[in-house]
Amino acid sequence: MLFNTIDFIFFLPVVVIIYYSLSQKGRWILLLLASYFFYGSWKLNYLAFIVISTLIDYACGLKMDKVDSKEKKRPFLILSLVSNLGLLFFFKYYNFFAYNLNSGISSNFPILENVILPVGISFYTFQTLSYSVDVYHGRQKAESHLGYFALYVSFFPQLVAGPIERFSNLTPQFKTEKRLNYENISNGLRLILFGLFVKMVIADNVSGIVEQVYETPLSYSSWDVLLSSFLYSFQIYSDFFGYSTIAIGSARLLGINVMDNFKTPYLSRNIAEFWQRWHISLSTWFRDYIYYPMGGNRVNKFKWYLNIFTIFIVSGIWHGANWTFIFWGALFGLIYILEKLISKYIPLPKKNGIVNTVLVLKTFILTTLIWVFFRSQSIDEAFQFLARIFEFSSDSKAELMIPSYVWFSLIIFIVSEFLLFNSRFDEKLDKIAFPIRWSIYSILLFSILVFSGVDDFPFIYFQF
Amino acid sequence: MDLIKKIAVRFVVLVALLVGMNFIYSKYFYEDDLKKHSLNMFNSVKSIKPDSDIIYIGESSNSTYYKHDNDKRTLGEFVSDYYPSLTTSSVTKKAAHAGIFKHILANIPNSSKKQTIIVTLNLRSFSADWIYSKLETALQKEVILIQNRFSLLNRALLSFKDYEVINGKERTQILHSTWKRELFHDLPFDLAHKNVKEWDKAKATEGIEGLDGKRNEKKTSLACNYIKRYAFQIDFDNNPRISDFNDIIELGKERDWNLVFNIVPENVEKAEFLVGEKLTYFMKENVTQLKNYFENKGVLVVDNLTLVEDSEFRDQHLTTEHYAEKGRKSVARSVAIAIKKFHQDEFLETDFKQFVRNYKPIHIDPFYTVNKSGGKWEFMNNFEGSETWSSPKSVTTEKSFSGKKSGFASKAFIYGPGLIINPQEAPQEELLGVIIKGKLYSENLSSHKAKMVIQAKTSNNKIWKSFKVKNLIKSENKWCDFSASYQLPKWINEAKELKVYLLNESKERVYIDDFEVIFY
Predict the structure, then answer these.
(1) B463 sits in which H/E element
(2) Which of A66, A207, B74, B188 could pair with B90 as two cysteines, CB 3.0-4.6 Å apart?
């Protein structure tokens, strides 16, 4: 089930109404059933993987909790890691490795055709991994209630595309009784409204335009290719940000606070700041479970840079089984390190509007160019796309047509980014008078109902 | 109490806003949206004449004609010849089925007359192949906006995907699992295959011989297609098409229509020739059951399953229901005679018998050799001569299908061989479409982005139609036949230039040989 479908529009209110009519004891059962239904409505068979992952991690957690020494805990941690990462490897990376090994060393690994990647597998496996690691280190007590644990793994608002939540943040909320609260409902609905606008009006309209240019960039003028690369920056952001906002809003309706995943990332002054504002739940996951264990910044300079670079490579691999993602991660890593080196000699001024504007533009342009690798099917194709931009050619066989309502909605979105800097849509609206607030709702609602893209562009991050 | 008041105020404001939005949308946006997202459906509805006595609705079987037909009118229009004093509408929605027709029919304006509604019943539309067709999502989307609801609600349902969101890959998976899951049962003969999958596989392995005594791939493939499309047994409780026709019956009762289901002909002769009587049993048995089922519900069912002979089927290498003139006229006559029941006094005999007497049996070639009465306008290049259809650099001796040379395109020469013509110089009065065919060779189908492109423009209009090579051919590292056709817009006759070329922006070369471009 997708958030931007009629099924979800009916599903969510039904779940919310039943949720508040039940006593606390029955709520986890409802949410678990609803989550399994939500996931199973896409592909019932693949629900089995969530259940298996849940059972293994639940059992490993309990086993680790019962023993004192890390040596005794280690086999269970390994079991959890192997089962989760094994599942991820099989579905997501096996064909990539087989293909590359077959072409590299002339091996003969079979290529598995017709394997469909289970939606959200990268998200829920990372969520359960964080739990196992935390229990192993003694930072988290193992959950003895299988129901609550299963709900942590599968909580429907953030099951398929995050935010990747920590056990310590989510599960205690399931256990606390939530009363029907006007503020929660109101803020949840605001977030859902805004998220739907961002996804359905911005991302879904822009995606068709971007797709045609990426199909045949050489048929378009350099200007059109450049423009489409900027549009892709908005597409991927609005697609994922829209999803996360709906997820946070949906959880909020149930009285549950899910962490923010984005904080106006395109207003970052450098790449380091960008990654503090983009896909925050993944960045912090990598920080806590890979970067810190590698020593973080408490190592020598060279090792530190290596750690940073490694994180970005892993992030690239997480996003997909293609060299383009690895290259994309590597580019971010290199620029991150480069900016760190430069900032040692040229420190950033804290309050200089012009310099900050230039830096924001610089970061946005760099990010846009790096996204080309993320969007392309191959590295070769990405370079070809970039080369077309820098040919500065006005020759074109095809023209890029952007409807006026797409420009209009993009302007609304960009303005909202500036207004929402370091704050969230629901909080910001609290401070606005009723007539203005409802005028904003009207514009968003009308845009969603009338100007949404009608082609089927699933959420980009579902494929990860 | 305050909370209830607060919510009530907001609810009232929301309702008022929605009413206002519906007004604005209906007045300023709805018609544009209809043209943008449901153009064919919009045209279908518009083509219904007000106060029609007879409405004939069908898919492409209604309107598709053959190049040599003297009379290219639709089947529905032929029916109207028998009732000249009545107002008849002929509605075509290509690739549609009862699930789509029911929504078009719901848009027929109320009439004081007792209307006769003739609905095409295409046997193939009950098959898994059609039910899980990749066209289904697009069809379902098209239908949303024309439904009788608030126009804003229609648009909202389109925005929120009130249709089956299943992609092509998933549909193919469902189709294959259905072919495997649905087992043949209660057959009056022994069949060595328990489902479509097995039968198809057996036929593909066995193959069909051509006139030269060798295995003929085209015939084998066609035989397999006949099995996949006709070897099914209708589950009257669960087949979605049954419920669609039942919905039409309900609508007919509400509107007091004379309802007629026209079972259009299938190429039973060819099915028997390629596969045998066991397959035609499925076709005939399904039709008998459908006839009984719907007649028991009070519908007049006209069974034309075997009415049209093989030679009158236009697409000889497909399983379509596209008939040449005699075929269409035969079906029309059969329907017209059947509905005499409702319009006895208005029936007028036509010159049909004379037409049949004078009819010269036609020799139907494969579809892609069509030409118009104005003469053929065909172009062919095997790259052996001096005519390269582009830069000589795009011709190579590296590979060839015929002779020693072929054309190619790659990142270094992205524009491969291409034909440039002036549509105004066409021998035909007007160009209707273009067919491209030939041989293609690709070393890596999955990664490259090569396309065959048809391009033209005038000051106001443009076409840039591309066919991905990876969709045109299925195998790598060998020469493969390809063909594609494209219907040209009317304005093409004002264009000064039309190009058909190979475009490839990938590093890997794609080769083309025996490249043919045919305008009809």
Answers:
(1) strand B462-468
(2) B74
